[in-house]
Amino acid sequence: MGTTYRAEVIGSMLRPPYLKQARKRWEAKDIATREFKEIEDRAVDEAIGLQERCGVDVITDGEMRRTHFIAPLTDVISGVEPIAGFTRVWRRPHEPNQPGEQTNIRVQYAVVDKIRRTRSLTNEEFTYARRRARKPLKVTLPSPLMMALRWSPQYSRRAYPDPFDLFRDAAAIVHQEAHELAALGCEYIQIDAPELGMLCDPERRAQDFADQGMNPDRLLGEGLEIVNSIAEVPGVSFALHVCRGNNRGYYVGEGGYDAIAKELFTRTRNFERFLLEYDDWRSGSFEALREVPKDRAVVLGLISTKRPELEPIDQIAKRIEEAARYFPREQLGLSTQCGFGTVWEGNPIPESTQEAKLRLVAEIAHRTWR
After folding, report:
1. Domain holding 27: CATH number?
2. Mean pLDDT of 254-275
């Protein structure tokens, strides 16, 4: 196991209003690229400063240069085009067995040709942030299996009759990104895999995978081997983040890790850390942690980025001790359950609450593991 980090962030920070406005102007060609990049730089500086002030142990650039957490695998590749929109139901956090707010979010992109990387987004992110960061810096990359949500039986079969060939091409792109980041001095890469959390939910298994021609069991076998293959880069420590969707405060999946735990934790041999969403009932119990090999680390995502309320310190401390019944306490850490802005719009919480949540992560973690 590599360096131990007790207080972690997941990746994205809330984009400031001036950055959102600048991107709209840049996309409309109202400002030059250089001016827009200087505005992005300012947002990255502020995101780094915020995380360092809050006291977390490892930071990111806040994903300020991305439109979406998956951007390194969608915004800078060819072969993806807009299609006729369809909707996916997302839910707001609510209590178990109680109705919650729902919304239909349009999904309207599909792979229509062999994918090729056109440029690197993360190289720019890392080289700039490296000069600014005073704390350990990590880069987030999307899981290649996220392309399951871009594979369409109607539009993608000519290029990829078997979606797993698409996943392998996506994995090659992510692996190349990781190698290039390592050459630039990056020592910590996190792979974001919400699609694995969706496999915990029988409804999502059926609608998003089986009904679209992708066998969920194959995803947990061959698919996880594909994910594991990207985390083999000398000198880099890899972490795997699993959640159940995070879009403007909504989530898409429910269900504990038990349904995927054995395959998830044993097939991903090249990952040293698992960053697991555990902020409410949707993630089930900690019993699934029994399946994690004892030479790994687990970061508990107990602080919600979806809810504005601050979690009581004593409540989080109790949950950490509960998790320690199933996995060694000295190999645990604490984080938010997901990013604050995995999509451009961000979660519905104020920037002051974002800061308070990060301070809470650092305070509880450093009090727990002194």
Report:
1. 3.20.20.210
2. 95
